[in-house]
Structure formats: C-alpha cells, structure tokens
Design a protein that fits this description.
By secondary structure, the chain is mostly helical. The protein has one domain. It is built from eight helices and no strands. Helix 2 packs parallel to helix 6, helix 2 runs parallel beside helix 8 and helix 4 packs across helix 5. The longest helix has 47 residues. The N and C termini lie far apart (79 Å).
Amino acid sequence: MTSPVPEHKHKELHTHKTGVQLNSLRAAVLGANDGIVSTASLVLGVAGAAASSDIILITGVAGLTAGALSMAVGEYVSVSTQRDTEKALLEKERHELETTPDHELGELVSIYERKGVSHETAQKVAEELTAHDAFAAHVDVELGINPNSLTNPWHAAYASAASFTVGSLIPLFAIMLPSEEMRVPVTFASVLLALIMTGSLSAYAGGSSQRVATVRVVFGGLLAMAITYGIGTLFGVSSV
C-alpha cells in the first residue's frame, strides 16, 4: 500500500504553480483597477462639465480604447525586453558551458558553498546535477530562469488589455445607464464597490493586509475621481 504524501510535501508540490497563478491574478487585478480609476475619472470629469450623454459615452469609449491599447503595448514592450534579456543570458550561459565547463562547475560548487553547504557535498551535488543536465542546473541556480517557461509578451499584452477593458466597463455602464440626475452618485457608488473588490483581491494576491490594501486603493480611486469631477465642474459648459 502506498504511503500518503505528507501534508507539508503536498503543499510544496504546488508552490510554484500557486506563485504563477497569484502573479497572474495580481497583474489582472492591477489592470482592472487601472481601467476602473482612469475611465471613471475621465467620464466624471466630463460629466462634471455638464456634457451630454453622447459626449460622455464617446469620451468613455475613447478612454477605454486608448487605455487598453496603451496597457497592451506597454506590457508587450516590457515583457519582450525582459524575454530578450533572459534569452541573451541563457545563450551566454550555454556558450560558457561549452567553452569553459570546468570553470562553470567550479562556479556551481561555489554557489552551493555560499548557501551553507560543505565543500564535499557541494562538489558532489554540482557534479551530479551537471551530469544530469548541466545547462538546466546552471540557469536555475545562477540565473533563476526556467528556459522552458519564458513569459510570452503576446499573452501579457492580451491579458493587460482584457483586464483594463473589464475594469473600464464598470464606470462606463454606471454613468450611462442611470438618469442624468443619478449618473454621478451611481458611478461613485459602483466604482467604490469595484475598488473594494480589487483592493481585497490585490491584498490576497500579495499576501498583505486586506484592510490596508483596500483602504489605499479606495482612497486613491475616490481622490482621483473627486479631483477630475471638480475640475470638470470648474470648467462646466451648458449641456448640448
């Protein structure tokens, strides 16, 4: 009969997967939060100027489109740069392993020694890992890179654009569906609830205090909306 896997070992098996999932959740939450705050601030600023529903809609859609594309392009460029750097480091490591294998073995031994392993054990571990897969052993320990799971810039771009769009739709619907008299308070209330959710999710993804993270997100979002609405009111125009 097979012995059950100890609970602590079972948790360790899922550590990497869970970390990847939390990073994806964090990125999605941040993108959605950007969409909520930026689009809400934009449409409330225009609403504060007493603009018509058509103008508010056009402004909101334009802001959503521009923001989503900007997020996608920015994420694509950022991740592409990171990926190119990682590829260059991997190629450099591969070349060093081909030209100076003894030196690279010594580097691996030194790394394990700095981690507190005895010289004899470090030598044995380094030799065994090198015999199994020298390239994988070195890039993991020296660079902390998994060559088989480099981040895809297109996936990052799509995810950023999608999360920003989802976030933007909340204030856009909130300001367009109610009557003219209710559109501002409904938008503030809807965005407040949305920010509470994103604040809680960001805290969960980051492993921090939900109360602190939520207050920070809500305060920042409401402040941005209040300022832009106030500016719109100062430069108000007659409805068209």
